[in-house]
Amino acid sequence: MDTRTSIDAEVRERELVITRIFDAPRQLVFRAWTEPERAARWWGPQGFVTTYCNMDVRPGGTFRVCMRSPEGADHWKQGVYREVVEPERLVFTFAWEDGEGKPGFQTVVTVTFAERGDKTELTLCQAVFENFEARNSHHRGWASTLQRFAQYLAENR
């Protein structure tokens, strides 16, 4: 195996890709990702509550969100929107904040929204993580968050 193949495989191990089909039209799914009052109702794993959600959804705009865990711990995240193509695609950076509000390791999240009849296929790609463990942690978080998202859509069609 040459060096390039080895590096490519390592990078792929630190990428996260999740695809789900939601029983809702693409425009609604996109709005739920781009309107703060909607996003605050579903963003975060099961049991978490979004206590702060500020989103300026445009290229160069920022977001900052605080999720409170069931144990009462606040988890702040922030990012910058790189690309917004309504209703097809969002690209933004993602970083957890430390206790002083400074961003940590940054990844890039790409979310695509494809029409599948009256449903929407959402594909989320997040990369490149520091390590395999960080990727797996985010996989668990996003899987739970997307379950909450499906519930939100079912209740808000």
How would you summarize what this structure contains?
About 30% of the residues lie in helices and about 40% in strands.
Walk me through this protein's architecture:
- There is one protein chain.
- This protein has a seven-stranded antiparallel sheet with strand order 1-7-6-5-4-3-2.
- The protein has 157 residues and is of the alpha+beta class.
- The mean pLDDT is 93.
- The protein is globular and about 45 Å long.
- 31% of the residues lie in helices and 41% in strands.
- Strand 6 (103-116) and strand 7 (119-127) form a beta hairpin.
Please identify the structural class as seen in this structure. alpha+beta
Order of helices and strands: HEHHEEEEEEH
* Rough outline: globular
Percent strand: 35-45%
Helix fraction by DSSP (H/I, runs of at least 4): 25-40%
Low-confidence stretches: none
Mean pLDDT metric: 93
Tally of DSSP β-strands: 7
Number of helices: 4
Rg for CA atoms: 16 Å
Please state how the strands of the largest beta sheet are arranged side by side: 1-7-6-5-4-3-2
User: What about the largest sheet?
Assistant: 7 strands, antiparallel
Distance between the termini: 51 Å
